[in-house]
Specification:
Helix content: over 70%
Number of domains: 1
Shape: elongated
Strand content: under 5%
Number of strands: 0
Oligomer: single chain
Largest sheet: none
Structural class: mainly alpha
Low-confidence stretches: none
Length: about 100
């Protein structure tokens, strides 16, 4: 009888862990979805500001060339932010 009780306890424990992990993953899904939505809404604004900055710096009137330069500028800034975030948010030695 005691052995059966331990088996039932293990089943409930696993179910509780699964439910906890499911809730954690669902929260993460919602956060990522909303983050993507926010980023998508700011996409055009960021591009327009970068395009204005590139046109101001280069004094170019060619729309296609300015658009390419703005995209390159955004890419370089984004890569820099990714490297900075990777450097400052890396795990400690004990978490490797």
């Amino acid at each position: 009888m005691i052995k059966r009780g331990k088996e039932i306890y293990k089943i409930f424990l696993k179910q509780k862990r699964f439910q906890s992990e499911f809730q954690r993953q669902f929260r993460l899904f919602i956060i990522v979805t909303l983050g993507f939505t926010v980023a998508f809404t700011w996409r055009q604004t960021t591009f327009d500001i970068s395009l204005s900055l590139v046109k101001f710096i280069t004094r170019t009137q060619n729309s296609s060339f300015s658009s390419i330069l703005a995209s390159i500028f955004i890419t370089i800034v984004s890569i820099g932010l990714i490297y900075a975030a990777s450097y400052f948010l890396k795990d400690g030695i004990e978490n490797c």
